[in-house]
Automatic annotation (TrEMBL):
UniProt protein name: Epoxide hydrolase 3
Transmembrane stretches, start-end: 26-49
Keywords assigned: Hydrolase, Membrane, Transmembrane, Transmembrane helix
InterPro entries: AB_hydrolase_1 (IPR000073), AB_hydrolase_fold (IPR029058), Epox_hydrolase-like (IPR000639)
Organism: Sciurus carolinensis (Eastern gray squirrel)
Domain (AB hydrolase-1) ranges: 98-339
Top-level taxon of the source organism: Eukaryota
GO molecular function: epoxide hydrolase activity
Pfam families: Abhydrolase_1
Similarity comment: Belongs to the AB hydrolase superfamily. Epoxide hydrolase family.
């Protein structure tokens, strides 16, 4: 068929797609402006209630001692083959078994896996990385350096750079978004997956269109589409919004100590420390609308019954995308969003049972 004819036949579909994307971006930026106004009021209220803290965050001069706890493992850096960036990681149990690679979420870092590093190092080589833009890992400033494709290449380079051909991939929140995609495009590198509190982006997209309340639960994502303003608002009153997110009585991490809180705030408080992590969100809508994708990697999915950010209905929506028999899903009664830190014992029990056949 002549190229001109093909182009003419495809023209209506291409125009429809462009109009759909233009409409979507108009909605996203409208929601971003509303979210900016709301979070601006919240940040200003924090400043007025705590005037001595001022409008800027206080850079921490020294890392808290818990970040140097030797029982969690040894610190190292890995140079990535694809990008040349260096990622920081903490490793323990080398030579004890298969690679168990941990991917953290926002606003966290490798330290969010402290309970799992201690628990599994006796039977696995456990490695918790600081994703690009986080902690001591390299943090490019450009938004285009945080696309899903580049972040998946980082995971591939970490697995191969550590000397392995596959891994057990354990992930939470943003790390889980990357893990879902990674298992689709690099299935040979993932033997098993443990996913906590996150859905594949295509599932999230389709579910949110049908359940508008999910958009309200994830309203912060729209704020993060704006340039520079999110970094400013999150840092005001010495990072009070982040402090509230992590320590809130109902929505935060239960029993988080002041030292553990500082373990998360330390790197965010450094100059430019928030830009890399927020750039993940600035690329979130880049490829919308997304096509549904079949999920086939054997996966353990853990979800908090009272997760304030993601509705329970997403669990069933995820299950509908799976090859039968490949998904084991559990809803933890009374648990929130931060299961690796709030409910480690329950998480460990499910993980040991899920991985038992690999140890025999």
């Amino acid at each position: 068929m002549p190229e001109l004819v093909v182009t003419a036949l495809l023209a209506p579909s291409r125009l429809t797609l462009k109009l759909l994307r233009a409409f979507m971006w108009s909605l996203v930026y409208s929601a971003a402006l509303v979210a900016g106004a709301i979070y601006g009021c919240i940040a200003l209220t924090h400043v007025l209630c705590r005037p001595r803290r001022g409008c800027c965050g206080r850079p921490r001069r020294a890392a808290p001692a818990c970040l140097k706890d030797p029982t969690l493992g040894k610190h190292g850096f890995l140079s990535l083959r694809s990008s040349g960036l260096r990622l920081h990681y903490v490793s323990a149990g080398h030579g004890n078994g298969p690679l168990m690679l941990f991917l953290h979420g926002f606003p966290e870092n490798w330290f969010s896996w402290r309970h799992q590093l201690r628990e599994f190092q006796s039977h696995f080589h456990v490695v918790a990385v600081d994703l690009r833009g986080y902690g001591p890992s390299d943090a490019p400033r450009d938004v285009d350096c945080y696309t899903t494709e580049l972040l998946m290449a980082d995971i591939q380079d970490v697995i191969l750079g550590l000397g392995y051909s596959k891994c057990i991939l354990v992930s939470h929140d943003w790390g889980a978004l990357l893990a879902w995609n990674f298992s689709i495009y690099f299935p040979s590198l993932v033997e098993r997956m443990v996913v906590v509190s996150a859905a594949p982006m295509s599932v999230y997209q389709d579910y949110s269109i049908r359940h508008i309340g999910q958009f309200f639960r994830s309203n912060y994502m729209f704020l993060f589409q704006l340039p520079w303003l999110p970094e400013k608002l999150l840092s005001m009153s010495d990072f009070q919004i982040l402090k509230t997110t992590l320590t809130h009585r109902k929505r935060g991490i239960p029993h988080l100590t002041p030292s553990e809180l500082e373990a998360f705030l330390y790197n965010f408080s450094q100059p430019g420390g928030l830009t890399g992590p927020i750039n993940y969100y600035r690329n979130l809508f880049r490829n919308f609308p997304l096509e549904p994708q079949e999920l086939a990697t054997p996966t353990l999915l853990l979800w908090g019954e009272k997760d304030p950010y993601f509705q329970l209905g997403l669990v069933e929506a995820i299950g509908r995308r799976f090859v039968p028999g490949r998904l084991e899903a559990h809803i933890l009664p009374g648990a929130g969003h931060w299961i690796p830190q709030s409910n480690p014992q329950e998480m460990h029990q499910y993980m040991w049972a899920f991985l038992q056949d690999l140890l025999e």
